[in-house]
Write a structure and sequence with these properties.
Helices cover 55% and strands 0% of the residues. By secondary structure, the chain is an all-alpha fold. It has one domain. Helix 1 crosses helix 3 and helix 2 crosses helix 3.
Length: 62
Amino acid sequence: MAGAILNADAVSELRAMFRDGVPRQHIANQFGVAVPTVYAIASGRLWKHIDEDRPHDMARAA
């Protein structure tokens, strides 16, 4: 099975939850990803092209 199961909006929500201190396991369960994936997204290692300071359509255009 190929393709992302997350989109830009989900990544932003995941990062916000992480910043708010929601447990990684809870975030992983909610989004259907592994706990290490949660950390990789929150730390910017994955989905680094999503810039939290700009609208998602603008982040892709940059």
